[in-house]
Amino acid sequence: MEVPLALVLLAIGTIVPVALALRPRAALLASLTSAGLAGSACCVAAVRTLVSRAAPSAWSADWPLPIGSATFVTDGLSAWFLLAIGASSVTVAIYSWGYFQGVAGQPPAWIAGALLNVLVASMVITVCAADVIPFMIGWELMSLSAFLLVGFHHRDPQARRGAWMYLIATHLGMALGVLPAFGALAARSGSTSFAGFHGAFGASDATACVVLFFLALLGFGTKAGVMPMHVWLPAAHPVAPSPASALLSAVVIKMGVYALLRYLSWLPVLPAGCAVAMLVFGMVSGVLGVLYALAQHDIKRLLAYHSVENIGIILLGIGTGMLGQSLGRPAWVALGYGGALLHVLNHALFKGLLFLSAGAVVHATGTGDVERLGGLARKTPVNAVLFLIAAVSICGLPPLNGFVSEWFVYGSLFGGAMGPSRSSAGIAAMGAMSLALMGGLALACFAKVFGVVFLGEPRDATIQAHPTPPAMRAGMIIPAALCVGIGLFPGVVVPLAAGAVGAVGGLTAEEFIASTQGVLAPAGRVTLSAAILLGVTGALALARLALLRRNVPEGAPTSETWGCGYAQPSARMQYTASSFAWPLIQSFRTVLWPHRKAVMPLGPFPSRGELETRTPDVAEHDFYTPLFMGVSRVFRMIRTVSWSGELVSGHESLETGGRVSPMRVLLAGVVTALRQRRVHTYLAFIVLTLLVVFFIESLSSRDSSVPSAAPTWETGAINGGAP
Q1: What residues pair up with 595 in beta bridges, in sequence order?
Q2: What's the distance, Cα to Cα, between the start and end of the chain in Å?
Q3: What is the DSSP letter of 175?
Q4: What is the DSSP string of 614-643?
Q5: d(CA 266, CA 185)
Q6: Which DSSP state fits 131?
Q7: Do 487 and 393 touch, CB atoms closer than 8 A?
Q8: How do residues 295-338 score in pLDDT, each as one tens digit?
């Protein structure tokens, strides 16, 4: 009953702040308390399900609509994602109390707290839904609440742009991928229940299954930020409030991964070519994501591109698991899917921590521009240590949790590289090399960020950093402790993934544990050895520092670090983030197409020298922007033609009482709403989406009975497999 309780708490956290609107501080406290308690309930439910490995538990309510059913199931796969959602919700709720204190202006901070509750509730509904209709409701609610959170600072044009880019991307993915994929399964099975989707398509429907796979990859991959459907991430993450950015990157994009894995569980074993395609998407997303991150100047935009990279790592694991299924190699299935799911949880922890830490930087300094920052380790030492822990984790270094999941993905790729098929072995070997390249580039990227932001001297004298509030520090310490704990004790966490892997790969818990033991044991030894080495090194460094301080006379003058023969070094002489990353960016210039503009100080009376570097996203600037500009021109052409073919302009015919056809009115209204970016158009899209689903159900429904409208909660257990 923990999951229904969590939804009730989230509903309270959404409604009560509205009643307390005249007391903003109390309203914010109520919303964040509800979110934190609901997250705790989700964690309890998830851990209980994962530890017990019992039959999936179900709970339902009578459904007043003539289609679908309000049935929800918590199995191994949904519990794994519930754990990530719950942990992220607790940390964000605690952090937000310190982050939103003192926020002035409209909208008030409690609105963001209420929207966080809606966002978490929508994700809980999405991962627990056992029917298309509640799944789609949760999916749409997630899109709307995330849209409002991204555009929370609506007076900022970049915030409005990022919010609309997110909304357009997620609905294009739904229209082009999600709806056709679900519609085909509903039409074949004659039901909208997930239980009926198992076996709807068999091995004889190979071509149809391949088409459905790519539709699902398009629709759910857009939500996950798979390249080249990723363009909304670097636009939305930097402009959202930092707690919202943390949730977006930690768990919202993982809903695309969850939906993709759930969809794969309904299809028969796919051909090896689908696995190869998944591996290719993983390599492209991972390598290009980290390269674009290396070229960024804004700390939150940099982290957004690292989300693309880590989605690529997850896809590498999923692709290897699919390859193992097609070739009959259960060890690859266990390591591939296991590594992907472990990275889902690990990424939720360290990427959420990174966004929270970056938010603390912005909160303390008022800017996220890396080029203007420096020396923050002196002003915010706790935040510097927490950022460093998350940076080591995301680079996949022992002894932290990022190493464990990437170790599993490496193991699956090495196994695939030694397989019997030359083509699959070659692509798996390329995946392993790509993963190694991602790790090296990520290490360079975070060496740049940490060195420039936290070390050295302040680069801008106008920036006066203030300490991080206690609530923000407390919210960041929790994921940092979990990153360390999972890294040091992987044997405690890895067996919990058995149920989730079984829901997708069809392995029993015993088969999963037996297949992963040969990789898990060395991982534990490596992390333990690294922890001992770091402990000894740290102790020696502290002892040396203590000796140096004891030998320095009290009151002795201190100065900045001397170097390069300059007697009075200036902060302007430090390496900038751009100069640090430029050699690597130049090495990949055929892929990134960087732009560099330099004005050199020449002549006897030289002007001020300037240097500007930027690396535009090729997918956005060279594909999507021209595409949507062309679509906009087409709509403008349509808008000037009436039903009879007569040219009209704007709303002239409406104002003068002239003849206007119904088609003209419809097209003009829709296009005008789109151009003015009205939310009404979004709501109309939701209604049309539901009408399409109703129509599909009316064609394929086998049972026309309508359940009672009085809601009654029921709990039970499903003896079959996953929903």
Answers
A1: 614
A2: 18
A3: I
A4: E---HHIIIIIHHHHHHHHHHHHHHHTB-T
A5: 9
A6: B
A7: yes
A8: 998 999 999 999 999 999 999 999 999 999 998 899 999 999 99
Res. 678: pLDDT tops 90:
no
- Taking the CA of residue 408 as centre, how many other CA atoms within 13 Å lie in the half-sphere pointing to its CB? 37
If you ran DSSP here, which 8-state letter would residue 164 be given? Answer: H
Cα–Cα dist 488/527, whole Å: 6
Report whether the peptide linkage leading into residue 399 is cis, meaning its omega lies within 30 degrees of zero. yes
Are 57 and 717 spatial neighbours (Cβ–Cβ below 8 Å)?
Answer: yes
Average pLDDT of the chain to the nearest whole number: 84
Question: Considering only CA atoms, which of 166, 103, 64, 203 is closest in space to residue 710?
Answer: 64
Q: Where are the alpha helices (DSSP H) in 53-108?
A: 76-99
- Residue holding tokens 């535009």? 616
Does position 620 have pLDDT exceeding 90, yes or no?
no
The answer to whether 112 touches 14, Cβ cutoff 8 Å, is no
Q: DSSP string of 354-369?
A: HHHHHHHHHHHHS--B
Which segments of 63-182 are extended strands (E)? 70-74
Q: Which of 80, 73, 85, 84 is nearest to 51 (CA)?
A: 80
Q: Which long-range contacts (CB under 8 A, 24 or more apart) does 677-683 make?
A: 677/160, 677/164, 682/144, 682/147, 682/167, 682/171
Residue with tokens 């990530």: 84
Token pair in block for residue 396 = 């996949």
pLDDT at 664 over 60: no
The tens digit of pLDDT for each residue in 687-698 reads: 566 566 555 555
Instruction: Return d(Cα 272, Cα 270) in angstroms, integer.
Output: 7
The single-letter DSSP state of residue 129 is B
Q: Kindly state the tokens that stand for 129.
A: 């839904």
CA distances from 570 to 458, 533, 560, 575 (A): 10, 36, 9, 11
- Mean pLDDT along residues 122-126: 95
Burial profile 338-369: b = 16 or more Cβ within 10 angstroms, e = fewer = bbbbbbbbbbbbbbbbbbbbbbbbbbbbebbb
Query: What Cα–Cα distance (Å) separates residue 687 from each residue in 61, 70, 422, 631, 674?
Result: 23, 19, 49, 23, 16
Output phi, psi for 615, to 5 deg.
-130, 90
d(CA 112, CA 119) in angstroms, rounded, equals 10
Q: Count other Cβ atoms within 10 Å, centred on residue 15.
A: 14
Alpha carbon distance 530, 518 (integer Å): 19
Phi, psi dihedrals of residue 58, rounded to the nearest 5°:
-120, 150
- 39, two tokens: 């997250």
- For the chain, percent helix, then strand, then coil, each to nearest 5? 70, 5, 25
Q: How far, in Å, CA of 79 to CA of 262, rounded?
A: 13
Q: Which residue type sits at 202?
A: G
What is the radius of gyration, based on Cα positions, of the chain? 27
Contact 314, 398 (CB under 8 A): no
Mean pLDDT of 577-590: 84
Task: Determine the 3-state secondary structure of 576 from DSSP.
Answer: coil
Closest CA to 664 of 673, 651, 677: 651
Integer Cα distance of 383 and 473 in angstroms? 7
Nearest-angstrom CA–CA distance, 374 and 254: 33
Structure tokens, 491: 């044997």
